[in-house]
Design brief:
The structure is a single chain. By secondary structure, this protein is of the alpha/beta class. It has 17 helices and 13 strands. The strands form two sheets. Strands 1-3-2-6-8-7-12-13-11-9-10 form an eleven-stranded mixed β-sheet, sandwiched between helices. Helix 10 links the parallel strand 9 (304-308) and strand 10 (344-346). The model has no long low-confidence stretch (mean pLDDT 96).
């Protein structure tokens, strides 16, 4: 036992040294100076408003829908040269739709019943390229599909349009959504609005970047291993991974929405916690919203609170002190001001030290095959593709080739991983019950430099644990660190208790100020 502890400690020290060397190398490679998001002109402050507020202003005709959509498109064109987040758009016909809405409102052609059914009437939104939008590019980030357009809207896009939303662009992703950075060979690399040398994460990285830069009001993401929450964290915005199955995934990455077993979910990304609940009501539909009790208020003072301060996975980097301090601030607030009688209890959860092993196993159980999707229907041979990449003849990024090589490594033991998942799931379910909330770190580091993920492969495990367990998790921003990069925390609940996550996220936003823009106003 003593020898085991010594080996773990030595490995942790080695990992810390690797992290420091990697930081120095990449900082020198990318240069000492950073570029932040372009300043926002004071006359365009409308793009900083919440989606709910924009919808209210449009309904009451305090501002025209055309003015709102035009402002967001102008902002998108202004910031995209730096962040490189847009794959298709902006869509000029969005302005025509905005004009029609203004005319209908002016002529009284939309009654109160219809307005109630369209909570986001006139509000601009975007979605990642892998989520289908009728007549728009649907590339999945691969060159073989660079001219492919979708024939139909994905279900989540359809629902947002039905709710009155106006889509203004689709955003960039890593190839087939399978990497921790947003980069593909169609438009290249997407950059973080807080520091263009840093990653936005993946796979909903374009959504995170546009939201942070105030170039969209609502983003639609998907999440199989952190793909909503990772970009939300790195870009300082909110992202909710719903309970698995409550949002129909038809049209997301070529899915039918009827897959019997999957970790994939679709969910909202926003700049304001208060926009998450209305967006979730739209995405799940009225029947599921009622089943999830999304229309009922949550009394956060009647919930029980827990936190985990380390996953224990030695393959991960150590959690940075500033992220620990951020969690401590949240824990202290809830322990002191929300539930002083019971406090917030530190706990451990079986299996967190093998999160990536569990996730890796469950990825092999997904109905979609990465190698076949990457080859646009024809499986890609990992070794052949590696040779092609090394000789400059591959159509794919190194990240995709890297991911392909994982299939050649020994696979996880099915019996061990299924039993470990069962025990982890059972323990979390019994811990949280109907009224429990868990605070969990987002990851180990604030937004790393581009390419760091090739070395720190496993740091995403803090997100993917909750895909394995199929539970809801909300990514919540918590200000900026000393380098001006976003901090954050995850709020987790048991299955179908999404409302608890969202209510707690709103309380954290109220106390800790939420999203801090990566630009100045002039």
């Amino acid at each position: 036992m003593a020898r085991s502890r010594l080996l773990v400690r030595l490995f942790a020290i080695f990992h810390l040294l690797i992290d420091k060397v990697l930081y120095v190398i990449l900082k020198r490679y990318w240069g000492p100076s950073k570029q932040r998001c372009p300043a926002l002109q004071r006359k365009r402050m409308i793009v900083t408003y919440s989606a709910v507020e924009l919808a209210r202003m449009i309904r009451q005709r305090d501002v025209s829908c055309y003015e709102v959509v035009s402002a967001f498109i102008d902002r998108l064109n202004e910031v995209n040269p730096l962040i490189n987040a847009v794959l298709d758009g902006p869509f000029v016909d969005a302005l025509d739709e905005a004009r029609r809405i203004d005319e209908q409102l002016q002529q009284g052609l939309i009654d109160e019943t219809e307005l109630a059914a369209k909570p986001f009437l006139g509000v601009p939104f975007t979605t990642k390229d892998s989520t289908a939008v009728k007549d728009r590019l649907h590339t999945l980030g691969i060159l073989a599909r660079r001219t492919v357009r979708s024939n139909n809207d994905a279900e989540c896009v359809r629902l947002m349009k039905e709710a009155g939303g106006i889509i203004i662009a689709t955003t960039s992703i890593p190839e087939i959504n399978r990497w921790q950075e947003t980069r593909n060979n169609i438009i290249g690399q997407t950059n973080n609005p807080y520091d263009n040398r840093r990653t936005v994460g993946g796979s909903s990285g374009g959504e995170g970047a546009l939201l942070a830069a105030c170039a969209t009001a609502i983003g639609l993401g998907t999440d199989i291993g952190g793909s909503i929450r990772m970009p939300a964290f790195y870009c300082g915005v909110y992202g909710h991974k719903p309970t698995t199955g409550v949002v129909n995934t038809r049209g997301c990455s070529l899915r039918t929405g009827r897959e019997p077993s999957t970790m994939v979910v679709a969910g909202p990304m926003t700049r304001y916690a208060t926009d998450l609940l209305p967006a979730m009501k739209v995405l799940v539909g009225p029947q599921t919203a009622a089943a999830l009790r999304l229309n009922e208020p949550t009394d956060i003072r009647k919930l029980r609170y827990f936190f985990i301060d380390e996953s224990g996975d030695i393959k991960c980097s150590a959690v940075q002190p500033q992220l620990k301090q951020a969690m401590n601030r949240v824990v202290q607030h809830f322990a002191t001001n929300i539930v002083p009688e019971t406090g917030v209890r530190r706990v451990k959860l079986i299996g967190t030290d093998h999160t990536t092993n569990m996730w890796r196993y469950w990825m092999t159980q997904e109905p979609a095959n990465f190698a076949t999707l990457l080859g646009n229907g024809k499986p890609v041979n990992p070794l052949l593709e590696l040779v092609k990449k090394l000789t400059g003849r591959s159509d794919f990024t190194m990240a995709s080739v890297y991911s392909l090589m994982d299939t050649l490594l020994p696979q996880e033991r099915e019996d061990i991983m299924r039993e470990l998942t069962r025990r982890c799931d059972q323990e979390l379910t019994e811990l949280l019950g109907d009224d429990g909330v868990l605070f969990y770190h987002s990851t180990t580091h604030t937004a790393p430099y581009h390419y760091a993920a090739f070395v720190n492969v496993y740091n995403f495990s803090y997100w993917c644990l909750f895909n394995v367990l199929h539970v809801p998790a909300t990514q919540v921003p918590l200000g900026l660190d000393a380098d001006g990069l976003p901090l954050g925390i995850q709020v987790v609940a048991s299955r179908n208790r999404d409302r608890h996550c969202l209510a707690v996220a709103e309380e954290i936003e109220r106390v800790f100020n939420g999203h801090i823009p990566p630009f100045i106003v002039e």
